[in-house]
Design goal:
Blueprint (H helix, E strand, L loop, with lengths): L12 E5 L4 H12 L3 E6 L2 H11 L4 E4 L5 H15 L4 E4 L14 H22 L8 E6 L12 H21 L3 E8 L6 H6 L7 H5 L9 H12 L10 E4 L19
Parallel strand pairs: 1-2, 1-4, 2-3, 4-5, 5-6, 6-7
Helix pairs in contact: 1-8, 3-4, 4-5
Bound molecules: NADP nicotinamide-adenine-dinucleotide phosphate and coenzyme A (COA).
The site of coenzyme A has 15 residues, from helix 4 and helix 6.
Length: about 260
């Protein structure tokens, strides 16, 4: 159940890089439901067109690779030209796969860093003069791997750690006109990320037992966190990473069960 009013984002424009599927598409849909004009971007034109149709309300489905600064800049100019200055920009495009460091080529490592980290720099650097200032809100989608080392994830750990610092540095450089924050989702059911990183996990209650809130997250829960961060309710919030992860990053909550009956 959302605490936000249906017209919260009327008059706002939102650009969602990586918004053509999964969590970011959920965020884009929620922005549109709350009245924002929305553009989503991915590499695949069919996915982009389908996502725009699913969002409805005249949403734009754009195509560019976030690794290509000129292309992403062109897409954002297009969106701002059609919809007006950008109030909200989400950088959520990411690539991932499980592989040990010794099973990863230099190009494999570079590819994920290039999409996640360099892509986030490109999206944020490229949007600055297209933003509605003051008041614009930027959100990067990071992950727990930014702070917790994770085997088979050296590329994503390095890339997401870098994203956390991009968030903090830009919050310092671009305040007070622009707020810059991050969201760190936990394991979110039904997403590409979950199927790549925890294949078969949806049937395994053991994983969920380790999460303090004892379940996978939902896309709509991450979308609500995004709405909060770009709303006036978060007007004094910048440079923060909002964990939307059921407490996953705190550690293994199943250990509490060892002490049941002791206190
Ligand atoms: P997803 O469905 O695979 O979404 C990735 C999006 O990024 C798609 O729109 C994809 O479209 C686009 N994309 C990928 N590479 C791109 C590139 N080079 N240039 C432009 N667009 C590109 O992923 P998801 O699982 O929902 O994850 C979304 C975000 O949440 C990611 O940042 C991920 O790291 C983060 N996250 C996810 C989870 C989880 O449980 N799923 C947990 C923690 C953090 P195209 O393929 O058409 O390019
Ligand atoms: N294990 C080891 N290396 C892998 C790999 C795997 N599972 N998958 C890809 N690679 C390597 C490739 O072999 C290649 O390295 P090489 O040139 O030395 O052989 C390198 O990674 C780049 O692969 P390529 O397929 O050319 O990259 P791409 O730019 O077309 O796609 C990916 C990027 C690999 C990240 C792809 O999985 C993707 O597009 N992902 C987006 C969706 C996603 O991951 N969503 C989840 C977000 S959490």
């Amino acid at each position: 159940m959302s605490a936000f009013k249906d017209n919260l984002l009327v008059g706002k424009t939102a650009f969602v890089a990586g918004g053509t599927s999964g969590i970011n598409l959920g965020i884009a849909k929620r922005f549109a439901e709350l009245g924002a004009k929305v553009a989503v971007l991915g590499r695949n034109p069919e996915k982009a067109a389908n996502a725009a149709a699913e969002i409805g309300q005249g949403a734009l489905g754009l195509t560019a690779d976030v690794r290509d600064y000129a292309a992403i800049r062109g897409a954002m100019e297009h969106a701002a030209g059609e919809m007006g200055a950008l109030d909200i920009v989400i950088s959520g495009a990411a690539g991932n796969f499980l592989a040990p460091a010794l099973g990863m080529s230099a190009n494999a490592f570079r590819t994920v860093v290039d999409i996640d980290l360099n892509g986030t720099f490109n999206v944020f650097r490229g949007c600055y003069d297209l933003l509605a200032r003051p008041g614009a809100s930027l959100i990067a989608i990071t992950a727990g791997q930014a702070v917790n080392a994770s085997p088979l994830q050296i590329h994503a750990c390095a890339a997401k750690a870098g994203i956390n610092q991009v968030i903090r540095v830009l919050a310092m450089e671009w305040g007070p006109e622009v707020r810059v924050n991050g969201i760190s989702p936990g394991p979110i059911a039904g997403t590409e990320g979950m199927s790549r990183l925890a294949p078969g996990a949806s049937a395994d209650g053991g994983h969920q037992e380790r999460i303090p809130l004892k379940r996978w997250g939902r896309i709509d829960e991450v979308a609500e966190a995004a709405v909060f961060l770009c709303s006036s309710s978060a007007s004094y919030v910048t440079g923060t990473i909002l964990d939307c992860d059921g407490g996953s990053q705190l550690g293994d909550a199943s250990r509490r069960d060892l002490t049941r009956g002791m206190a």
